[in-house]
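Checklist before submission:
- one chain only
- standard amino acids only
- sequence pasted in full

Submission:
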Amino acid sequence: MAPKGKVGTKGKKQIYEENVATLKFYNRVILGANAIYVAINFCVFYSSSSFSTMLQLVFALAVYAGSYRSMLAMAKPAYADDGGLLDGGIDLNMEQGMAEHLKDVILLTAIVQVLSTISSYFWYLWLLAPARALHVLWMNFLGPWFMADSPSAPEEVNEKKQRRQERRQMKRF
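Returned file contents:
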């Protein structure tokens, strides 16, 4: 059952603290996934590592860097001259925001990267990201635009209504 009344809003300090905790969590996810990948592929199975293994690591690092830096920029707080918190940044834990998609990309990349220590074919799971992007694009922008009703022509007035309107106009004059 949904709570009654007004939904509470978060204060600047609470948003700031939650953003710091969220960034810390995703930083640990990134470091953990990379540590597992490097330890297994470059330490344990060093002899079977190839150029594609290094390329996959570079790809994952680029995805992590872009997503994490975007989240950092979104969560950047603003301070007053006296050091007080003016703005806690954009709430990274807000549902249906851009940060939600960035967090999904980080988690997908971490999962794929760790699973790829078993088999490189798990990198094909990363194709879920563009598929999800196309789905969101279709549902939010393209679908409604293509499926929107065209501006309809004026409705054809049947004969009875037309005669009735003509009589009303005659009465006015």
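Reviewer check: The mean pLDDT is 85.
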